[in-house]
């Protein structure tokens, strides 16, 4: 199998964008020698959607990224628009399963021993986020974010002409025992309070939803409102093409330093070039907290390293996204193949990938889907930027509200990207946000 991974450093994501001919438009602030209007660091799905919303509003927007548009973590995710996924990770049984999972170096959760001392403060915050007194607030905030995300994605897809990239097949979560199923019920009850529809299935109904499952799975939960996209990389590039049509542009550059200027921000590129921007949005995924430190903000972001293998489309007839929650991974049917991936490795951004983890997931998938052809797969590792309470950071820096943070979405970057684009646009334009943003404040820690 062939492996691929990230280059280390400040990042996000594709081809350099071209703005309309200067004969058809007024010159941009940068072309007039005034610097950038709005600079976005990060070309992943969050930065792309922020750019799309601001370009729609008539602002001059430039994305800076070391690699390209949607070329890194946003390119290889599980393709889910997981609007029903409102439970914070600390409440998904991770604490309960932690000792068992950590005993297995290739299990759903892995922490390299040498990294544990550095990770310990984050783990303590994660444990505290699971306390009952914080649960309801986090749950309500996440549910509100998801309602906005679903509405904003529907609108953005309609405006960008990308509705044909949406799949509405639902998801199927699977259980290997009655005990595992019963342990999931409190979580489903919490979702039900927020109007999320689902049905528990077994027997013939389970087989009908996904033929060819191993008989080890005795029950499942079908969520009809769960959606996926045909391919996350193609989706990101399509939204970027829409932003480009509205005037957004891309510059391939690594940002080495950022700072607050007299009006806005300064960006120092790797080649020593210094740029000015009236407003700066930091949406650099797993590297964002390093940039936030330049503005005096210490945000406890950690990196969930996720692994997957994308098989040819002929590998198995997967009807909808299959969720093996007890093992921490999913199987997703894409336009470009069948993707087997997930799990969590809390190991930072510097360690090389451990593709034994993707192979372990593929081995499990073969057991769970007898007949799955494992040949011809492409391995991948991505870096999910995660905060202890499972809520992203959306808001201004301490030093200046012309610097806006939009990062830390964890497993939900694709899901919440359009909502984040709307919220950041409203902040920059001085409009009242559609709901209280205090649960997402950069200062909440």
Automatic annotation (TrEMBL):
Natural source organism: Mesorhizobium prunaredense
What's an example of a GO molecular-function annotation for this chain?
Answer: oxidoreductase activity
What cellular-component terms does GO give this entry? Answer: cytoplasm
Q: What is the lineage of its organism?
A: Bacteria, Pseudomonadati, Pseudomonadota, Alphaproteobacteria, Hyphomicrobiales
The record's section on Pfam families has: DAO
Indicate, by first and last residue, each region the UniProt record lists as having compositional bias (Polar residues): 1-14
Which protein are we looking at?
D-amino-acid dehydrogenase
Q: Which residues form the FAD dependent oxidoreductase domain?
A: 37-427
Q: Where is this region: Disordered?
A: 1-31
The entry's keywords: Oxidoreductase
